């Protein structure tokens, strides 16, 4: 009986040896990677999503990186050539070229690592620009890096929903000129343009600037007014044939959308759900006294669009107001 | 002695239907009133709000251009008193609205008429 067990001894010893070795995951090997999504706002067409892809090797050199999106991105999608470091003397983040031959073909972006002798551990930036074709769809990314030893590691991102919203920045409105706003077109027109191009049925908002208004000369300022409001538009010669829809307009002073503002530092974002669920019960058909960083939720009279109109700036002398718009098609 | 203290400390103070404490206070009046627009900023003209605790009226003036159909009233009342119906919800103030102040002991009720006129 005993002699039957002898051949098993080396097998058991081998199993015990293997079983006692610590398991090696890709994150613990000589070639490692990690991923951070830097962008906190929604993925909107017209803006980008930024990732920081960290890679490092203890054997050989970093060679190439690759990112594959499940949906092709727009122009500008791909790896950035620069990594960033903080200058300890000035505290300012400064760029350092770490990647070359950056290329994007379809959903795949690639780059080669520069100065491999010194760039043993770097963080690359990858930008993804959602396209109109991807609105409402989900996208995810697989990042990978290869080393000169032939090893490869990769990391899979979570899934992100591309917003259904359209965004248009820096539309300059001018009292008596580019004052007629179409939410369908996300464009401001002059009276002549509305008449010549038969746009009368598409105008949802009229921009006016009146320092004061009313019998008591009350402060009024920069205003968005629905064509339905005869009180505030009584001194305006409207385009011929202009429909008089009652666009719902609900002023806000504390919604400083970072994407519409175009600057970092404000982590407030209008997302699809805000425009889907905002209610307009008993709201006005005007918003006046508008100033920079303020805005208004608006909904077209036919219920086709809801939008947030953000005020980037006003100019009392030029009688202009610059706005940026996020718009969602509701039906 | 400890048992008596313990029993007293565990005694249940009466509360009303909304869970608020019913106290012994009988005072019953409004001390402050404000009206907010859709941007959650006051729409009232400063210095024009008058509270008459005898006539039980509140009068105020809203700034030119205020959408009176969608404003949100707020008020302060004497300690422990409550207001019915609840303020702080979007309200149509084109017509005077009535609110009842109920004292802390819930025994005294005074109905105020709140009238807000619009600068024309």
From TrEMBL, chain A:
<dbReference type="InterPro" id="IPR041873">
    <property type="entry name" value="PARMER_03128_N"/>
</dbReference>
<dbReference type="InterPro" id="IPR028072">
    <property type="entry name" value="DUF4466"/>
</dbReference>
<dbReference type="Pfam" id="PF14725">
    <property type="entry name" value="DUF4466"/>
</dbReference>
<protein>
    <submittedName>
        <fullName>DUF4466 domain-containing protein</fullName>
    </submittedName>
</protein>
<feature type="domain" description="DUF4466">
    <location>
        <begin position="30"/>
        <end position="329"/>
    </location>
</feature>
């Amino acid at each position: 009986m005993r002699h039957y067990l002898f051949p098993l001894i080396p097998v058991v010893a081998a199993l015990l040896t293997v079983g006692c070795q610590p398991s090696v995951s890709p994150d613990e090997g000589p070639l490692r990677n990690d991923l951070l999504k830097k962008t906190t706002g929604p993925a909107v067409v017209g803006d980008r999503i930024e990732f920081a892809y960290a890679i490092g090797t203890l054997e050989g050199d970093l060679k190439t990186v690759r990112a594959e999106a499940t949906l092709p991105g727009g122009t500008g999608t791909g790896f950035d050539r620069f990594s960033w470091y903080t200058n300890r003397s000035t505290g300012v983040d400064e760029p350092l070229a770490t990647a070359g031959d950056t290329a994007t073909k379809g959903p795949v972006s690639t780059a080669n690592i520069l100065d491999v002798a010194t760039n043993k551990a770097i963080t690359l930036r990858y930008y993804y620009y959602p396209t109109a074709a991807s609105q409402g769809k989900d996208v995810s990314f697989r990042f990978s890096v290869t080393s000169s030893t032939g090893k490869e590691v990769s990391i899979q991102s979570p899934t992100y929903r591309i917003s259904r919203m359209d965004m248009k920045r820096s539309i300059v409105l001018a009292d008596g000129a580019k004052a007629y706003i179409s939410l369908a077109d996300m464009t401001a027109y002059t009276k002549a343009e509305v008449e010549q191009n038969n746009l009368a049925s598409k105008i949802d908002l009229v921009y006016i600037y009146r320092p004061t208004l009313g019998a008591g000369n009350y402060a009024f300022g920069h205003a968005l007014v629905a064509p339905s409001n005869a009180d505030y538009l009584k001194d305006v010669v409207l385009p011929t044939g202009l429909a008089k829809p009652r666009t719902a307009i609900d002023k806000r002073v504390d919604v400083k959308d970072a994407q519409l503002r175009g600057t970092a530092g404000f982590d407030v974002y209008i997302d699809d759900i805000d425009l889907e669920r905002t209610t307009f019960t008993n709201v006005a058909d005007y918003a006046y006294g508008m100033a920079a960083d303020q805005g208004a939720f608006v909904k077209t009279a036919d219920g086709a669009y809801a939008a947030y109109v953000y005020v980037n700036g006003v100019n009392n002398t030029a009688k202009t107001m610059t706005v940026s718009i996020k718009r969602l098609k509701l039906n | 002695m400890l048992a008596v203290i313990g029993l007293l400390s565990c005694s249940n103070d009466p509360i009303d239907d909304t869970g608020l404490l019913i106290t012994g206070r009988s005072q019953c009046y409004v001390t402050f009133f404000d009206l907010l627009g859709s941007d959650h900023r006051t729409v009232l003209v400063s210095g024009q709000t008058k509270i008459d605790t005898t006539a039980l009226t509140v009068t105020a003036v809203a700034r030119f251009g205020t959408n009176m159909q969608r404003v949100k009233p707020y008020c302060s009342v004497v300690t422990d008193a409550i207001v019915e119906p609840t303020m702080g919800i979007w309200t149509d103030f084109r017509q005077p609205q009535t609110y009842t102040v109920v004292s802390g002991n819930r025994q005294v009720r005074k109905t105020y008429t709140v009238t807000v006129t619009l600068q024309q």
